[in-house]
Amino acid sequence: MTDHDEDLSLALRLADAADAISGARFRANDLHITTKPDRTHVTDADQTVERAIRELLTAERPHDAVLGEEYGDSGEDPRSAHRIWIIDPIDGTHSFERGLPMWGTLIALVVDGEPVVGVASSPALGKRWWASAGGGAWMTETGAQRAAAETDDEPTRLWVSGIGRLADSAISYQSVQQWDHAGHLDHLIDLTRTVWRDRAYGDVWAYTLLAEGLIEVVAEFGLHPYDIAALVPIVQEAGGRVTSVNGGPVLWDGSAVATNGAVHDELLALLGS
C-alpha cells in the first residue's frame, strides 16, 4: 500500500475512458483535424478525451486543480496548486493523425510540485505503463496485444537497464529540429558520436522504452508540463532519473533529460551542465 493507491486507481480508470475514445477514433476516416493558434494540430479525439477525463475528475476529485493541453487550467495557478492533475489527452497527435501507433494518453497527479502518480496508455501499441511514488513502475499488455502474447492480467514490474557508460548506451533524441531550435545541435552531434546507438523514437514511447530497460537515454526540448509529468514517476520508479538539461527540476523547465541513472551525470556533463 502507498499513499496514492486510490489516486492511482482513479488514474487507471481515467485511462480506460480515454482509450475507449481514442481507440475508436484512431485511423477513422472522418477524423477532424484543426490548427491551434500556436500552429500545432489538434484532433476531435484530443478534445473529446480531455473533456471526458475532466468530467470524471470533476465528479471524483472536485477540489483538485486540473491542467490539460487542450483546455488549459481550471482556474488555480498550476505552479502553486497543492494537488493538480496534468493531462495530455493524446501525446503524439501528429502520429495519431497520420495513423502511426506511437501515441498515448498521459495522466499525472502532481502534489506540491512533485509528480506522484503517472499513467501512460497506448491502445494502438497495446500497452499501458503506470507508477506511483513508492509503488514501483509497471506495464501491462492490453487488448489484442495481450491475447496474441497469451499473457494473463498480471502486470510486469519495470526496471531500467544497468548499462553504465554513454559509449554503450542507446538513446532517443526525439528530433534534430527540436535540438536545433533549442541551440543544442552541436551537443546532439557530439552525443550521437559518443553513444552506441541513436534513434528518434518519439513522444511517450521513448520514455516507456527507457523504463522497460530497452534504451538508456531520452532527451528533448520544447516541453510543456503535460508532455512530461506522467512520465516522471514511471521512469523514477523503474530506477531511472529525470531532470532538466541543467540538472534541476523538470516539470516547468521546458527540457527533459531522462536516463537509467547510471549515465545521467556523464550525459549532463556532455550537454554542458
Structural overview:
The protein has about 270 residues and is an alpha+beta fold. The protein has 2 domains: about 5-155, 2-Layer Sandwich (Fructose-1,6-Bisphosphatase, Chain A, domain 1); about 165-270, D-Maltodextrin-Binding Protein, domain 2. It has 10 helices and 15 strands. It has helices at about 5-25, 45-60, 95-100, 145-150, 175-180, 185-195, 205-210, 225-230, 230-235, 265-270, and strands spanning about 35, 40-45, 65-70, 70-75, 85-90, 105-110, 115-120, 125-130, 135-140, 155, 170, 195-200, 215-220, 240-245, 255-260. The strands form 3 sheets. The chain has an 8-stranded mixed sheet, with helices on both faces. A 5-stranded mixed sheet has the order 12-11-13-15-14, covered by helices on one side. A two-stranded antiparallel ribbon has the order 1-2. A hairpin with a 2-residue loop joins strand 6 (about 105-110) and strand 7 (about 115-120). The longest helix has 21 residues, at about 5-25. It is globular and about 50 Å long.
